[in-house]
Design goal:
Structural class of chain B: mainly beta
Strand content of chain B: 35-45%
Strand content of chain A: over 45%
Largest sheet of chain B: 6 strands, mixed
Shape of chain B: globular
Shape of chain A: globular
Helix content of chain A: under 10%
Oligomer: heterodimer
Number of strands of chain A: 11
Radius of gyration of chain B: 13 Å
Radius of gyration of chain A: 13 Å
Helix content of chain B: under 10%
């Protein structure tokens, strides 16, 4: 399996809802990422997990809460989001070996709409 | 500060014409440079990286450290090359990547 799988594909949620985005890979990659992509903009890094530990948080608001339960799974828990948080959320993974700058494999994304 | 600049939002060419998508970067160290491509209704995927020095789908890109550029070139464009192209950089050898993307160039190849 050489893909990064994201669920759901689409999500509509109200500002008081709690929801989660899920990401899974079975390539043995040890680095996993969340990116946010607004319409007609490039992806922007949110979080990086390396060997299941949070390595980078790009000053993301606390209403976004990442979780890496194991080396294959990455979640993004959402709570009290704002309409401006509506975007395509991309998950990615890479080998993550120290000293090796391996390319990212991206999922298809979850298109989130906050109403 | 890390920055990637792609000056053209849209590049429109005819099939068979040469293509050059421009990318300039600013970074204090020695980054690794990438081109990622997103075809319609497909996921973002790696096209090529500077350390590989290979040609993918007829595209090449040479890192010019003096001009801090990593332009993407193809001598004869095909309709199937129509897509969104992102230039990106990442610090070398960090294990995980902290990719910084340019704003992207949409390539449209007409018959």
């Amino acid at each position: 399996d050489t893909e990064v799988t994201q669920t759901p594909k689409h999500l509509v949620m109200g500002m008081t809802n709690k929801k989660s985005l899920k990401c899974e890979q079975h390539m043995g990659h040890r680095a996993m990422y969340w990116y946010k992509q607004k319409a007609k903009k490039p992806p922007e890094l949110m979080f990086v997990y390396s060997y299941e530990k949070l390595s980078i948080n790009e000053s993301v608001p606390s209403r976004f809460s990442p979780e890496c339960p194991n080396s294959s799974l990455l979640n993004l828990h959402l709570h009290a989001l704002q309409p401006e948080d509506s975007a395509l959320y991309l998950c990615a993974s890479s080998q993550g070996q120290q000293g090796v700058n391996s390319p990212l494999h991206f999922g298809n994304g979850t298109r989130l709409t906050v109403t | 500060a890390q920055r990637v600049t792609q000056p053209e939002k849209l590049l429109s060419v005819f099939k068979g014409a040469p293509v050059e998508l421009k990318c300039n970067y600013s970074y204090s160290g020695s980054p690794e440079l990438f081109w990622y491509v997103q075809y319609s209704r497909q996921r973002l995927q790696l096209l090529l990286r500077h350390i590989s020095r290979e040609s993918i789908k007829g595209f090449t890109a040479d890192l010019n450290k003096g001009e801090t550029s990593f332009h993407l070139k193809k001598p004869f464009a095909q309709e199937e090359d129509s897509a969104m192209y992102y230039c990106a950089l990442s610090p070398m050898n960090t294990g995980f990547q902290k990719l910084v993307f340019g704003t992207g160039t949409r390539l449209l190849v007409s018959p």
